[in-house]
Design goal:
The chain is α+β, with helices and mostly antiparallel strands. The strands form two sheets. Strands 2, 5, 6, 7, 8, 13, 14, 15, 16 and 17 form a ten-stranded mixed β-sheet that branches. A hairpin with a 2-residue loop joins strand 10 and strand 11. Helix 1 packs parallel to helix 6, helix 2 packs across helix 3 and helix 3 crosses helix 9.
Length: 421
Amino acid sequence: RAIGDRAGAAQIQHMSDLDPVTGRPAWKAYRSPTVPTDMLKADVSADVLVVGMGIAGAMIVESLSAAGFNVIAIDRRAPVQVPTPEATALVLYEMDEPLRVLTHRAGHHYADAAWRRSRIAVANLSARVAALEIECGLTVSDSLLLAGTDLDADGLRHEAALRRTAGLFAEFITPQQLRARFNIARDGAILSPANIAVDPRKLAGGLLTKSLERGAHFYAPVGVADVQSAPGQVTVETAGGPVITAQHVVFTTGHDLPGIVPRGRHTITSSWAIATRPQEHALWPEQLFIWEASHPYLYLRSTSDGRVVCGGEDEPIADDAARDALMGAKSATLARKLAALMPGLDTTPEFVWAGSYGSTSTGLPLIGKVPGHPNVFAVMGYGGNGMIYSKIAAEIVLADMRGMPDKDAGLFGFSPAAPHG
């Protein structure tokens, strides 16, 4: 189940038949761009083939097409179908694991550099959306990390100090300040500035539409059957028969891993989310993005029309039937926790959904060339930071294809030097 060498080909096999999203995500309440695709009826070629047209694929296609590359993208489903609607699209630079945890596992160099790059990626994504004039409900707000089971008040103070040492703004908020300013009863919090939130379907659709305008070509539904790797060229045989030839191939297939990609550091986690009815009058002061330092953690944001989107309760479940069987209990737990945190809200779920995502032990993604195959890239293991890691992946892939490797590429690569445990 590995990619063929220069002389051979290997059958592409999927890691699982896991259905990435079930239920009804809140984004179904809003219209999003329709991305037209063609049927693949004959052999085609391009500079780059991107496999997968979710948010990661959309960011990479847009980045490469803007740089003048001839890009083809394929998906075995329609564009922006999975796992993009699963996202709650709370785009924080803060990683799932605290900085002090990553520092302990990987050292200050890796931890500080990864967090700084994540901070930069939020700013870059916000600027790119503005430059392209994509209407995706982008909002900019500070965020609050609340004290929880993983980090109490003293732990948050230490975490904030580490972030400041790394060059990141972080303000510890005392329980008294938290109550007075935000009407939240917790033992403390960290305030972080200028994070963002978006409608993920509108963002992905907007990026793909911009790419089409530049001459990118999209084909769906198209599955991958075989891959041949040779110097300067990759040949992909599709499930329907036609062959796609490209100088480079980028797999952005999320947790649905093709057999060519090493998966030893990769695990699958399930998550659940709810969204309430619109209730602008009942929202918390300043409508900051909120999450908590707990396992499992709770996080919440508001939408432009006053809904509250709340998610969490993550568990290491890789079976969609088992995940979906918990949807009722998990949504009830999320609603109960949300009500305890925000007593003035009507937390009755109007939308309930579940999804699965890939992750690694450190919370850092895997972004880079498939070992032994310098013309094949894979991006995966995004954890709860899919939007930001997708932006970083787009930057790393583009830099490599321009012949100017990204200085942070080693933080996220597949090589043993990358700190994925």
